[in-house]
Amino acid sequence: MLEKIKATIFSNELKTEFKVSNEHFTRNRKQCFPILLLFMLNFLRKSLSLEIENFTSLLKAGSNSKFTKSAFVQARKKIRPEVFDELSRVLLNEFYTDNVPAIKLWNGFRLLAVDGTRITLPITDELKAIYGETKNQSSTVLVQARCSVIYDVLNKYVLDGILAPVVRGERDLALTHLEHCKSNDLIIYDRGYPSYDFIQQHVKSEFDYLMRVKTSFSGLVMDFEKSRKKSLVVAIYPGKNAKLTDKEYTKNCPIKVRLVRIELGKGNVEILMTSLLDSNLYPTSQFKELYFKRWGVETFYDELKNKLRVEHFSGYSNQSILQDFKAALFVSNVQTLIVSELEDELKDINRGKKYDYKVNTNISYGLLKNRVVTLFLDEKTDGSDIVEELKSLYKSHLVPSRPNRKSERNPGKYRARIKPKITKNQKDGV
């Protein structure tokens, strides 16, 4: 699988498709197209000068391989950020088509979760114009983008990621992810997503869904919550005040949905809405655990922000922001691919132990630094020696997984905290 990615990185087709202009990369320079891609994949979180020194030492070409920070800044302008989307597409296609026995499914469904967050950006005039300004509780002005991803929670791959202005709604972004879905997908959403129109789009595309809904979603949901029934199939209609002039449906178009009541303890209840209507095929007792699997996308955001440190951007233009963001998504998928090859060995390691041990995600990304370059650098090798080295290192840094741990939420804990600005004159030195 990694051989196909390496071949893609060094292919003329990739360069031709994702260079900004036909005039770019026509001469043989130190910073050729694939070398620039590998450099941007190598977690550019420190000062660019230090990152360049580190990277050129990996090339083992002596002083002839060195380039300046200014040269890199100019060269990266010639590459479209979507190149990393294409590399992820190659990886995912290889996994989902050539690795069928290893694909984890739930009742035959690929289990996907969609969720959004905000990514804090450097404060520049260009980024303000594109993404707008936001304020927190202390009136501090920030530049933030709305981020949305669709994530395979069982296989731990991110299928698609978007950065957009915060004024763009989560539902709108979620619908753009549907082009990455297939007929056997079950898509899970939190309670901010459901609406008649949103559900109708899934019906039209023939995608199954599971959504948490607020009790105030409709009178039907309120009545169902009060009835204390566990499950009920009902028909929903567009809201009375919904504007339908530009829609393909009328107010008399019902959608059959199934409401499921989940008891959370301490008198708390959540209501789920799903297209899985058959209670014999999909018993009500399965839905609590099924919806909880959505937590995988929350865990992914923790990795993206706190382990991959995606908000520590290597540049200040929108193009460099998108390059860093999309490169981080691709690297995350590479890390998932390598870790997945350890599953059988981890089962043997965990046999008879009190806790199941898993790879330390934070350390695994640190170990991938530099090795992600050597993994794809040499066209004459398949990178298997690097993969085996990483697997051995990952096994030496396992941590126990302790289930059923709970802590009380304190939503106001950070309410008075001021989000630190991303400085433009200093990066981490180590």
Secondary structure topology:
Elements: H1 2-9, H2 12-18, H3 33-41, H4 48-59, H5 69-76, H6 83-98, E1 110-121, H7 125-131, E2 133-135, E3 141-152, E4 157-165, H8 170-177, E5 185-189, H9 196-205, E6 208-213, H10 219-227, E7 231-236, E8 255-265, E9 268-274, H11 287-292, H12 295-307, H13 318-340, H14 343-350, E10 356-359, H15 361-368, H16 371-377, H17 384-395, E11 398-401
Parallel strand pairs: 1-5, 5-6
Antiparallel strand pairs: 1-3, 2-3, 3-4, 6-9, 7-8, 8-9, 10-11
Helix pairs in contact: 1-6, 3-16, 6-13
Structure in words:
β8 and β9 form a beta hairpin. The strands form 2 sheets. Strands 1, 2, 3, 4, 5, 6, 7, 8 and 9 form a 9-stranded mixed beta sheet that branches. The radius of gyration is 24 Å and the shape is globular. The chain is 40% helix and 18% strand. It folds into 2 domains: 163 residues, no CATH class; 216 residues. The chain has 17 helices and 11 strands. The two termini are 33 Å apart. α1 packs antiparallel against α6 and α3 packs antiparallel against α16. With 430 residues, the chain is of the alpha+beta class. GO terms for molecular function: DNA binding; transposase activity. It comes from Aequorivita ciconiae.
Order of helices and strands: HHHHHHEHEEEHEHEHEEEHHHHEHHHE
For this structure, the quaternary state is single chain
Classify the secondary structure makeup into a structural class. Answer: alpha+beta
| Number of domain modules | 2
Total number of strands? 11
Compute the CA-based radius of gyration.
24 Å
Shape: globular
Total of DSSP H or I helical runs spanning 4+ residues: 17
Whole-Å distance between the termini? 33 Å
List low-confidence stretches: none
Helix content: 25-40%
Please, what is the average pLDDT?
89
Strand proportion, as a percent range, falls in 15-25%
Largest sheet: 9 strands, mixed
Protein name: IS4 family transposase
GO biological process, one term: DNA transposition
Organism: Aequorivita ciconiae
GO molecular function: DNA binding; transposase activity
